[in-house]
Amino acid sequence: MAVCVTPRHILQLPLFQSTAQKLSYPIPAGYPAFFACCKYQPAHNPAHRLILLTLMRSIPAVALATLIALTGCHSPYVATTVSNRTSRTIELLEVDYPSASFGTQNLAPGADFHYRFKVLGSGSMKLLYTDGAHQDHKYDGPFLKEGAEGPLIIVIKETGITWQPAPTVAAGK
Questions:
Q1: In whole angstroms, what is the distance from residue 149 CA to residue 23 CA?
Q2: Residue 80 Cα distances to 70, 111, 162, 168, angstroms
Q3: Tens of pLDDT, residues 42-82
Q4: Structure-derived torsion over alpha carbons of residues 104, 107, 113, 116, reported in degrees to the nearest 10
């Protein structure tokens, strides 16, 4: 059995007997066989220890920067659900809000339509739709301020419209 003397301890290497006898440099403990055949030993190189220490010191800074970037990138939006609780298909649906609008061609009885939007500016919402009997309907909704955020549920019933905004939607900035 060959014995290699290192600065820190003595290693007995039964697997590398012939290789260890030919080498004039120490083989550190725990290194796989491919390090026994080359003269490069990264753990005993002072430059590698310095680089590793520098990288380890930068890990908390990188983690903090990532956390700040992720929490600072929140964009407020209103998550709207329009529900058809009538017995007829809604053929054309349009929801107007400050600075834009959205809608759909058909909304079946009992179906829901989901849409998210960002409020830019301030103003009232409006709902316009054409029912299965080809009658146009128009309803005024809540007032939205820029930065409004949260859920908004619009329920279309046979008797009229129900607007259910969350307190944060009506409040805005």
A1: 70
A2: 24, 14, 13, 13
A3: 556 666 666 777 777 778 888 888 877 777 667 889 999 99
A4: 20
pLDDT digits (tens, 9 = 90+) for 129-165: 998 889 999 999 999 998 899 999 999 999 999 999 9
Whether 35 has a pLDDT exceeding 60, the answer reads no
Q: d(Cα 31, Cα 28) in Å, to the nearest integer?
A: 6
- Answer whether CATH 3.40.50.1980 is correct for domain 78-171: no
Domain segments of the chain: what residues?
A: 1-40, 49-74, 78-171
37 vs 19: CA distance, rounded Å: 7
> What are the CA-CA distances from residue 95 to residues 6, 13, 67, 159 (Å)?
78, 78, 36, 19
